[in-house]
Specification:
- With 337 residues, the protein is an alpha+beta fold.
- The protein has one domain (3-332): Jelly Rolls, CATH 2.60.120.620.
- It has helices at 3-15, 40-46, 57-67, 78-93, 122-125, 140-146, 149-159, 240-253, and strands spanning 69-72, 101-104, 114-116, 130-133, 163-171, 195-200, 211-213, 259-260, 268-272, 277-279, 291-298, 315-318, 321-324.
- The strands form two sheets. Strands 1, 2, 3, 4, 5, 6, 9, 11, 12 and 13 form a ten-stranded mixed β-sheet that branches. A three-stranded antiparallel β-sheet has the order 8-7-10, with no helix packed on it.
- Its cofactor is Fe(2+).
- It comes from Spirosoma terrae.
- InterPro entries: Phytyl_CoA_dOase-like.
């Protein structure tokens, strides 16, 4: 039997039951909802915080378990979105005042892809292939949005633990990133304790390079990068293109349908660490795809800021969850009030 046939059979077996554990994460540390024989109805009855959740929590948790994502419709107030994007425009248009880190995925920046905003020309900052990194450090409202109560309530239920916001990315245009799973790149001390939010800052158009994803792909067998296992770094024998090709091929072989995310301003997509997803091609370069992507872990799995792993972090607490202050840029904290 070929390796591909074995992978296909393993994936079909995993997809056949919502009670199968998530492949190749340590079973003992899996969030409760990823384990076998979970009782969602009993959990919902006992989860006091869920009583004020503005959606059907049991329905959302069952959907998450089956599909690896949920959508919280109109979760973020429109006026918050407008004010937050106004802060992003201020950063772009007056970049010389700000030290915010920005990743530029252009060939001319290949040697130094991450730079401070003040060192990047405004026409580059205002164009595609830009990721504004951890803008929540600078923006009090960015923290409020990423830890808005419905998001925290749901993720606290998923993790069974206090929620920690780890990092964020702000986009004006579509990322066009190939298919991937977040756990391979975003490091949590317990890899299975990882989730993300994709927050629409405008209505998303089909031609703007929208997010796509494969429902149910969080149960597929993990890709092997070689000597670094299921995680990717500079020593991996396989690369992100290999990773994308594997995921696209395996999803197709087991019959998972690729779906496109066309949500409205203020809607939030929450997804599992292992959900296969990516950014579609931008078919109309005049169209923006303003979005705010946030990654989360649990208190037991993310106890230190990634920039200072050996020191106790400064915690900002919002709605019963925490985000850590950036230890390298204290002067930039909450400069947008």
């Amino acid at each position: 039997m070929s390796l591909l046939t074995k992978l296909k059979n393993a994936a079909k077996k995993a997809l056949s039951s919502t009670n199968k554990p998530i492949s190749e994460f340590e079973t003992a540390t899996l969030p409760w909802i990823d384990r076998t024989d979970v009782d969602i109805d009993t959990f919902v009855k006992q989860y006091q915080r869920g009583h004020d959740f503005p959606y059907d929590l049991g329905e959302k948790l069952r959907f998450w378990q089956r599909n690896g994502y949920v959508i919280l419709e109109q979760a973020i107030p429109s006026q918050w979105v407008d004010q937050f994007w106004g802060q992003a425009e201020e950063l772009i248009n007056h970049h010389e005042h700000y030290r915010t880190n920005v990743r530029v995925d252009l060939p001319s920046y290949a040697a130094h892809p991450v730079m401070e905003a003040k060192d990047i020309p405004v026409d580059v900052l205002n164009g595609p292939y830009i990721k504004i990194m951890d803008f929540h450090d600078n923006s009090a409202l960015g923290k409020q949005i990423m830890l808005h109560e419905p998001i925290v309530t749901f993720l606290e239920a998923v993790f069974g633990d206090r929620v920690i916001a780890m990092q964020s990315l702000l986009f004006k245009y579509g990322s066009q990133q190939p298919t991937h799973q977040d756990f391979a790149y975003v490091v949590s001390e317990i890899p299975s304790h990882l989730a993300a939010a994709w927050i629409a800052l405008e209505d998303i158009h089909i031609d703007s390079g929208p997010l796509y994803y494969y429902p149910g792909s969080h149960k597929l067998k993990k890709f092997d990068f070689g000597n670094t296992g299921i995680f990717y770094n500079g020593q991996s024998k396989q690369n992100p293109t290999d990773f994308a090709n594997y995921l696209d091929a395996l999803c197709q072989q087991v019959g998972l349908k690729r779906e496109t995310l066309l949500i409205k301003k203020g809607d939030v997509l929450l997804w599992h660490a292992s959900l296969a997803h990516g950014g579609d091609s931008i078919r109309n370069p005049e169209l923006t795809r303003k979005s705010y992507v946030c990654h989360y872990s649990s208190d037991k799995a993310y106890q230190h800021h990634r920039q200072s792993p050996n020191t106790e972090p400064i915690r900002r607490s919002i709605n019963g969850a925490d985000v850590y202050a950036n230890p390298l840029m204290p002067d930039q904290e909450d400069i947008f009030k």
